[in-house]
Specification:
This protein has 11 helices and 5 strands; from the N terminus they run H-H-H-H-E-E-H-E-H-H-E-E-H-H-H-H. The protein has helices spanning 8-15, 23-29, 35-57, 60-67, 112-125, 136-142, 144-158, 191-214, 220-223, 229-238, 246-250; strands at 73-79, 88-94, 128-134, 165-169, 180-183. A 5-stranded mixed sheet has the order 3-2-1-4-5. Helix 5 crosses helix 8. The longest helix is centred in the last third of the chain and has 24 residues, at 191-214.
Length: 255
């Protein structure tokens, strides 16, 4: 990259929220004779180090397991407990050891664009990943908690490589014999769980966009099935669709 001859506005655009540039290049840029450019480069270096520190902390649980001989550690998380419509979706992800994947975080803390970008990076770097679902009918039959656990179990079983240990966001997957650890708010504490939350969220969002094409009056492209005022008003006006959860429709406490 020819940083020295690049206009300031282009440098600003290139550095913004992108930590993939070689550090050596930006260190040189931090001494640029253009004061504003040097300041931007110095700010980038500080922000990058802060992000590196955050990502290193996300590997705390994984490193403990790697050091005790568990080489293949899967992170598991689910999304879609709260919506009135659609399935609950889970993902399982096995990442390479010591992989620092830029942007991995609790999927709820990322914008739609950030999730999509990070999802692509995760899938390109992951040793293995898989999706599991529990349908709206299963949610009605066994309740949302058990359906979420079922979706997570299916995600783990769908991996093309069996994990040696599983890190799960807040739950225990009882039908699996693989050793596992439940971590409260795990999607913000574990790299693998955070990666799983992003893959699950992106998958479910795309699924809800497909449903939106069938039933546009419900605004699934905006609410993703969650009980927004717009969504509830659409149900009152048009009735429920074949993907609405009957048990949730009856439970007014979820509003």
């Amino acid at each position: 990259m020819d940083w020295q001859n690049m206009p300031v506005v282009e440098i600003d655009r290139a550095l913004k929220n992108d930590f993939a540039w070689p550090v050596a290049e930006i260190e040189i840029l931090s001494c640029d004779k253009r004061k504003v450019v040097a300041q931007k480069a110095q700010k980038w270096l500080k922000k990058r180090q802060k992000e590196v520190d955050r990502l290193e902390n996300l590997l705390f649980f994984e490193r403990q397991l790697w050091q005790t001989g568990f080489e293949l550690v899967a992170g598991v998380d689910e999304v879609g407990r709260g919506p009135l419509a659609g399935p609950v979706v889970a993902a399982a992800v096995i990442l390479p050891q010591n992989a620092l994947i830029w942007g991995v975080n609790d999927s709820k803390k990322l914008s739609h664009t950030q999730r999509q970008k990070t999802e692509e990076i995760i899938k390109n770097q992951a040793f293995a990943w898989a999706i599991g679902q529990a349908s709206h009918q299963e949610i009605d039959e066994i309740n949302i908690k058990q359906a979420a656990i079922l979706a997570m179990s299916r995600a783990v079983k769908a991996l093309n490589t069996a994990p040696q240990y599983i890190l799960v966001d807040a739950e225990n997957i009882k039908d699996l014999t693989t050793p596992q650890k439940a971590i409260i708010k795990g999607d913000a504490k574990s790299m693998a769980i955070g990666a799983a939350s992003i893959i699950a969220k992106c998958y479910r969002d795309r699924l809800m966009l497909e449903y939106h094409a069938k039933w546009p009056q419900y605004g699934f492209d905006r609410n993703m099935g969650y009980p927004t005022l717009e969504h509830r008003q659409a149900i009152e006006k048009h009735g429920r669709t074949p993907i609405h959860r009957l048990s949730f429709m009856k439970d007014k406490s979820r509003s």
